[in-house]
Amino acid sequence: MKRVFLGIDLPKELKEKIEELKAKHNLKSLPIKLVEPENSHIALKFLGELPEEEIKALIENIQSSIAGFKGFEVSLNGLIAFPGFFKPRVLAIKIESVNLEGLAKKIFAGLDGLSFVKPEERKYAPHITLGRIKDLLDKEESLKLAKIKLQAAFMANRLQLFESQLTAAGPLYSILQTFELN
């Protein structure tokens, strides 16, 4: 059994830019468990614990769903918080890409045909998680976070099926399969 999710790994330069943003705004001084730089990604779908034979079926399904889908630009545009900035639990970078949302819909539709994949119930909200907030932030801290600006873009030419191994030090991600968009 492997704990897996589908996502888009970020280019090294973008991961460095995200780390600069964390340092510039001293996010480590807040009660936030920050995501390690090597783990930064855009999640498409968490798939849970799957045995090897289901992972093989999943890979075939995804390859079929994305056939003919070309690479596309992804824009990062400021920060968002879930469920909102006044009682945030997750701090993230907002992603804007009509093509990414279209790709997610195609993949979700394909995954609906697999009995072992739970259908997606929430509207897809693409983001890059910066960290999980451990304690309530005061109003001033929340307002400061809401005002942070980040503008960047990159070409998404592939997606990855990741394995996530939970450890005491935090999750370790490894790529099980890469899917080219071309």
- Characterize the main sheet: 5 strands, antiparallel
> Could you list the spans in which at least 5 consecutive residues all have pLDDT below 50?
none
CATH topology: Cyclic Phosphodiesterase, Chain: A
Along the chain, the helix and strand elements come as: EHEEHEEHEHEEE
CATH architecture: Alpha-Beta Complex
**Distance between the amino and carboxyl termini:** 31 Å
- Share in helix: 25-40%
Strand residues, percent? 35-45%
Q: CATH superfamily membership, which one?
A: Cyclic phosphodiesterase
Our Rg estimate from Cα atoms comes to: 17 Å
Broad CATH class = Alpha Beta
The main sheet orders its strands as 2-6-5-4-7
Commentary on this structure:
This protein is of the alpha+beta class. It has one domain (2-177): Cyclic Phosphodiesterase, Chain: A. It contains four helices and nine strands; from the N terminus they run E-H-E-E-H-E-E-H-E-H-E-E-E. The chain has helices at residues 12-24, 52-66, 98-111, 139-146, and strands at residues 2-9, 32-34, 41-50, 72-82, 90-96, 127-133, 151-156, 158-165, 172-180. It has a five-stranded antiparallel sheet. It has a four-stranded antiparallel sheet with strand order 3-1-8-9, covered by helices on one side. The protein is globular. The two termini are 31 Å apart. The model has no long low-confidence stretch (mean pLDDT 95).
